[in-house]
Specification:
Length: about 140
Amino acid sequence: MKTAIIYARAKASDSIEMQVSTCKEYAEKNEIQVIDIYWDLVLNSHCQPLAWDKILNISKPEFDYIIVYDYSRIGRDYTEQMKDRINLKNKGVRIITPITELTEEYFKQEDEYAEIQEYCYECYKNILRNRRKSK
């Protein structure tokens, strides 16, 4: 059986409860065992998402998926989100949402998308590096 953790992030605890509930239903429907739940209550934009940082720093995850209500829960900054998704994919963990269809075709497309993301991220880092050198 596949395993997962649930991650929720919001400004209000009732929103976290709704996210967790939706993710639990999705896991049950797809026969995924939820082994833990992490959440961050973010009161303002300056709050550091400590639970998310803890997840990212797990060196050998013992779960297959991270279920999030929506991809925006893992961050608003697309570049940071992309970096986190690549990091987790390299550890063998996929981020999924309640709208994800767990099919081989979906994961094949997701892998191709991740390769493009990784390439774009490397290009972005090179551009920044070259700008710093030229200053």
